[in-house]
């Protein structure tokens, strides 16, 4: 009896050990490394770039960008919108695919689009960023005859609208608003009476519904029209997405190339530590890893042992590594102080050594390969400690034996600063260490503070920071930077973290957002890049090249500079 | 026994261990002086991953940022030493103090007057209320150093009250009996159930990363075993007749401690010290490896080991720190073994 008990316990232990966070190795399961926990999968206020990557497999937008050639393709829409324009407005008419439906088999209709737009503009929700971004959509007109047809009425016309009018998640009204709380409130009214509606019981109860953690975490609630559904999420460990067996996209007749769900399961392994992720890659426990640390990437590329199992890609990405300076802090109020800091980053050295040449230097937040919009005449603030000292003196700082000091509003301030960045990110750590070394040479004391990403988020939102290192995930499709840079968004919780902005730059941003013509837009964007360099609230280092390793077992691989850098839904895993 | 004969009585391994430990301590001292002078490992990214033994400039090669490995390893001795020895000395002293107090005072030996307790509580409360505005005030004056006067002054005042050094009029005669032994037992029971590494990981999250705050947390974590050893030894001693005699003769406690108690507890305490220090070398490196507790710009063997994971080709970034760590741990273990075997000779109760 005892013996049997021992054997049973032993077997149970072995089974537990073997099933411990390893994916069930289905033939077509793709295992992908995620560098961070998604934190929240609320489609309105999701946690980070990784959340967005997952959300794109669960929810869909009307339009999508093709990774291969960056062209715009219809996704939920049957075709690209038809556009009509008059003096003050433009009208984008969409038709939703007839096959498109939700998990409960009800069709995706124009009412769902209207509901999604209402969400983006409703009071009491965390949607400031979207309200600013989609402010140009003034109204939605539903077709009286066809529930799948609708027209968006937009303010003016800009080329970006070709994508922007369909670049938001279409969400299931039946699931998010089962009692139809806002179904009868017109979209135009929500836009016009934003402030007064925030006090109504209707919107109070609706915001309670949407801000509920269920929408951010509960696998029963996170359901869209996309090819996958989330089946498991252990915070900080794994997220599992399973293919929908009878997904509508498989029955679609037109434009099937953007509607794929080849892998039966997507297994996202959350490994924040780069080195641990590399070990997992080397032992072939993951199929796909992006942002592979440089040294490992170069070594693995040369090593036959790894070349046999992995393909290595390094497409240029729109991920921009930059330093944020808190312009609202007393010691950084003067732009010359911020410029001085910019002269302490040896970008060319960072690119050649730390990035192994796999990065592109930039003067601003436009990628140099977007030649028409990039300000190539602007000179980069080069590494120059002497220039930094000169600028500090011009800003009123005095070099003393105790470092740089300045009397600001009657109080003696020292130029000491904390630099925060995500712990475990070896690239950021190298940047931080080299900056500290350069700053120390001219007498500036920098304290490095690696942190969890959630801690950083809190600090940035509450404006409780000096400097930070972060990656800005950009794209080549739209240049409406109002949510990110307009001074109206620099209050606590707003998207403008660094406190950038003057009346002149605000005006520039508004003009860029509304400018229709390429040439004028280009000149405005170039002026913005110049102004941003002058203000130096954001010190731009380089656009990364994504370093991706993909298992050779996988066919139909398309890599691109557009996030996340690969389209996993097309992957076919060979046996 | 003089030093020469002690040295002769050591085995080869023990001699090597002692020499190694002295070298390690000397390196740590040199590194500390260099750190005070503002010397830091300088990064030249253009010279990253230079192989060892190829030039005199970088005898042991360079790491991923082009920092000279030999210099980095030297400065890392300071971090390892600072995290192992000083906090352990303080923790051991605290452990001996609490262990002896618990054994001598028992559950009835410490009486404190209610009035004094009220005064102490009130003073502490006053300090916590006034602490923040006072600190802000001295900061506003630009005289931040006055903070230390406030802290030390408060501490001194509380100590004087506790030790009856102030001429306080005591209207309340009622005394409270403090069960010192029971209280310590309870604390030790709770504290010793927690794994030390886990405890340090949790505690270090409460303060900004700094080598000194980590030293503080190590003190908080490592006093338990010395306290337990001391308490057990002193409880045993209390039963001896000569201890009773010393009490009857009115020998001062300091003398009793130095002449009778210390020789008995010295062996186990020093043994525990060596093994705990060797464990701390490992734990300090583990924390640095995980990037927790130690700031990223403080050189550490653990950090080198963590970075070595990125590159298989650069074997020297792994081998040299691993070797230093291993030898330092083994040398302390070997010295600890020596103390352990010698302990019986020293004890007056054997």
TrEMBL record, chain B:
One of its GO terms (cellular component) is plasma membrane. GO terms for biological process: transmembrane transport. Residues 151-336 form the ABC transmembrane type-1 domain. The chain crosses the membrane at residues 18-37, 80-105, 117-138, 145-163, 197-225, 269-294, 314-332. Pfam families: BPD_transp_1. It is found in: Cell membrane. Keywords: Cell membrane, Membrane, Transmembrane, Transmembrane helix, Transport. Belongs to the binding-protein-dependent transport system permease family. This is ABC transmembrane type-1 domain-containing protein.
């Amino acid at each position: 009896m005892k013996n049997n008990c021992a054997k049973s316990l032993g077997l149970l232990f072995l089974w537990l050990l073997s099933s411990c966070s390893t994916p069930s190795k289905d033939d077509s399961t793709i295992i992908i490394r995620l560098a961070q926990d998604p934190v929240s999968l609320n489609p309105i206020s999701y946690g980070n770039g990784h959340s967005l990557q997952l959300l794109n497999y669960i929810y869909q937008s009307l339009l999508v960008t093709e990774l291969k050639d960056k062209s715009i393709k219809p996704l939920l829409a049957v075709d690209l919108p038809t556009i009509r324009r008059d003096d003050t407005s433009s009208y984008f008419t969409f038709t939703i695919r007839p096959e498109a439906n939700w998990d409960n088999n009800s069709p995706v209709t124009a009412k769902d689009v209207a509901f999604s737009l209402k969400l983006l503009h409703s009071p009491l929700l965390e949607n400031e960023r979207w309200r600013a971004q989609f402010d140009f959509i003034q109204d939605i007109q539903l077709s009286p005859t066809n529930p799948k047809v609708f027209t968006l009425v937009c303010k003016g016309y800009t080329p970006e609208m070709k994508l922007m009018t369909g670049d938001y998640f279409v969400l299931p009204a039946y699931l998010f608003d089962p009692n139809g709380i806002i179904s009868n409130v017109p979209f135009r009214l929500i836009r016009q009476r934003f402030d007064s509606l925030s006090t109504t019981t209707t919107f109070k109860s609706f915001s309670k519904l949407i801000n509920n953690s269920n929408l951010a975490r509960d696998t029963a609630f996170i359901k869209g029209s996309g090819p996958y559904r989330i089946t498991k999420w252990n915070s900080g460990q794994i997220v599992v997405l399973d293919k929908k067996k009878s997904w509508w996209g498989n029955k679609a007749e037109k434009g099937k190339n953007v509607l794929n769900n080849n892998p039966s399961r997507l297994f996202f392994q959350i490994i924040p530590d780069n080195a641990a992720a590399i070990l997992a890659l080397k032992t072939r426990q993951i199929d796909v890893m992006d942002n592979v640390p440089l040294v490992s990437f170069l070594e693995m590329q040369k090593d036959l042992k790894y070349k046999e199992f992995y393909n290595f890609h390094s497409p240029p990405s729109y991920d921009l590594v930059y330093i944020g300076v808190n312009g609202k802090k007393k010691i950084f109020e003067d732009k010359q102080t911020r410029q001085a800091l910019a002269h302490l980053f040896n970008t060319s050295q960072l690119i050649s050594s730390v990035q192994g040449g796999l990065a592109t230097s930039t003067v601003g937040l436009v990628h140099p390969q977007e030649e028409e919009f990039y300000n190539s005449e602007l000179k980069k603030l080069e590494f120059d400690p002497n220039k930094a000292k000169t600028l500090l003196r011009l800003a009123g700082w005095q070099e003393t034996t105790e470092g740089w000091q300045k009397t600001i509003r009657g109080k003696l301030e020292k130029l000491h600063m904390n630099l925060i960045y995500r712990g475990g990110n070896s690239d950021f750590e190298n940047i931080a260490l080299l900056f500290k070394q350069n700053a120390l040479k001219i007498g500036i004391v920098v304290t490095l503070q690696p942190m969890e990403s959630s801690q950083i988020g809190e600090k940035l939102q509450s404006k409780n920071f000096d400097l930070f290192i972060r990656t800005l995930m950009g794209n080549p499709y739209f240049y409406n930077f109002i949510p990110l840079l307009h001074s109206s968004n620099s209050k606590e919780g707003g998207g403008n973290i660094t406190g950038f902005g003057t009346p002149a730059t605000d005006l520039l941003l508004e003009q860029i957002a509304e400018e229709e013509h390429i040439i004028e837009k280009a000149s405005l964007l170039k002026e913005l890049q110049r102004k941003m360099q002058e203000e130096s609230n954001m010190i731009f280092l380089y656009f990364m090249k994504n370093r991706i390793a993909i298992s050779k077992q996988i066919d139909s691989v398309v890599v691109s500079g557009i996030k996340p850098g690969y389209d996993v839904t097309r992957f076919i895993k060979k046996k | 026994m003089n030093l020469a004969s002690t040295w002769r009585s050591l085995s080869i391994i023990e001699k090597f261990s002692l020499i190694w430990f002295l070298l390690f301590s000397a390196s740590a001292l040199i590194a500390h002086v260099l750190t005070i002078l503002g010397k830091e490992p300088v990064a030249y990214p253009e010279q990253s991953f230079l192989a060892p033994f190829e030039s005199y400039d970088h005898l042991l090669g360079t790491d991923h940022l082009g920092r000279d490995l030999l210099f980095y390893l030297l400065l890392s001795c300071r971090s390892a030493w600072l995290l192992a020895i000083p906090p352990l000395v303080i923790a051991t002293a605290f452990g001996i103090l609490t262990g002896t107090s618990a054994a001598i005072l028992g559950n009835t030996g410490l009486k404190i007057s209610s009035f004094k307790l009220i005064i102490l509580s009130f003073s502490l409360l006053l300090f916590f209320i006034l602490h923040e505005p006072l600190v802000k005030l001295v900061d506003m004056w630009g005289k931040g150093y006055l903070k230390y006067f406030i802290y030390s002054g408060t501490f001194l005042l509380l100590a004087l009250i506790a030790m009856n050094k102030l001429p306080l009029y005591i209207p309340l005669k009622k005394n409270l009996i403090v069960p010192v032994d029971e209280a310590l037992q309870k604390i030790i029971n709770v504290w010793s159930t927690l794994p030390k590494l886990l405890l340090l990981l949790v505690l270090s999250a409460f303060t900004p990363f700094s080598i000194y705050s980590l030293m503080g947390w190590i003190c908080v974590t490592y006093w338990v075993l010395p306290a337990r050893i001391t308490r057990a030894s002193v409880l045993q001693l209390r039963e001896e007749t000569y201890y009773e005699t010393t009490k009857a003769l009115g020998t001062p406690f300091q003398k009793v401690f130095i002449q009778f108690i210390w020789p008995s507890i010295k062996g186990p305490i020093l043994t525990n010290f060596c093994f705990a220090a060797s464990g701390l070398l490992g734990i300090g490196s583990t924390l640095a490896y995980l990037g927790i507790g130690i700031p990223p710009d403080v050189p550490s063997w653990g950090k080198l080991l963590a970075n070595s994971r990125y590159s298989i080709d650069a074997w020297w970034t792994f081998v040299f720190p691993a070797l230093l760590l291993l030898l330092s741990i083994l040398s302390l273990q070997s010295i600890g073994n020596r103390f352990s075997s010698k302990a019986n000779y020293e004890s007056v109760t054997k």
